[in-house]
Design brief:
The structure is a single chain. By secondary structure, the chain is mainly alpha-helical. The chain has a domain at 31-82. The protein is 73% helix and 0% strand. The protein has helices at 2-5, 12-31, 36-45, 48-59, 64-77. Helix 2 packs across helix 3 (36-45), helix 2 crosses helix 5 and helix 4 runs antiparallel to helix 5. The chain is globular, with a radius of gyration of 15 Å.
Length: 82
Amino acid sequence: MEALKEKRILDRETQNKVNFMTFIIAKFARAYKMSKPDAYLYLKKYGGMDFLNEHWWTLHVEDPYWSLRELYEVCYENGGLK
């Protein structure tokens, strides 16, 4: 019964990572005139999500403009056209 009452709570770092990734995907979508789902799929297809997952901590302290530019560059190098 105790197991049912136990809540699964994300640790602080995971919460921060999810919040940043949600924020930057929305920014990417606006900057490149895409819907949020399209932006996510584009980033996923061209390596942007892997880059975000690996480097989110460094990217979150940068100006969002530079984070978006780096995402653009990663995607472009992996075949992205936008």
